[in-house]
Design brief:
Number of helices: 4
Number of strands: 6
Structural class: alpha+beta
Helix content: 25-40%
Shape: globular
Largest sheet: 6 strands, mixed
Strand content: 25-35%
């Protein structure tokens, strides 16, 4: 997983491995642990904004629809608690990228999906959607629009 994140432009300083996130389930407090939370630590305006969260499962875990749904819901909850709009799920055989659209958070359709053996030919598309550069531009545009309407 780490070599892929590096190819997407994320430096070691941009990665928080095993990031704990305080959350609540009903009236009970709990802590979620994000496998990888990715930031742009070189841009002060985005220092505390996760660009992408990653849920990494054991190989072959995403073959069953229920396993995929469980991983999706787990990763989606990380995004909701951290206000991150993108998450990636992988079982080392398949890589799937999702964009949480506010108001349509139940959608399970990935914006990118590729099998590992085809990743070298699909990498350009993944890079355009999930690289540090692409997501930095996304969040900077999002926040500038939010500030203009405030």
């Amino acid at each position: 997983m780490i070599p892929l994140l590096t190819r997407l432009g994320y430096a070691e300083d941009d990665r928080y491995d095993g990031m704990p996130v305080p959350a609540a389930h009903g009236s009970r407090n709990t802590t979620l642990v994000i496998d990888f939370a990715l930031f742009n630590n070189s841009d002060d305006s985005l220092k505390n904004q996760p660009l992408l969260t990653v849920e990494a499962k054991k190989e072959g875990r995403l073959l069953k629809q229920q396993e995929l749904l469980n991983a999706h819901n787990q990763a989606k909850s990380y995004c909701l608690w951290t206000q991150c709009d993108f998450f990636l799920i992988t079982d080392s055989k398949t890589v799937q990228l999702f964009h949480i659209s506010r108001g349509r958070i139940d959608q399970l359709s990935p914006i990118f999906s590729c099998e590992r053996e085809l990743l070298s030919s699909c990498f350009g598309e993944l890079y355009a959607r999930a690289s540090k550069e692409a997501l930095t531009n996304y969040y900077l545009a999002k926040f500038s629009t939010t500030e203009e309407t405030s």
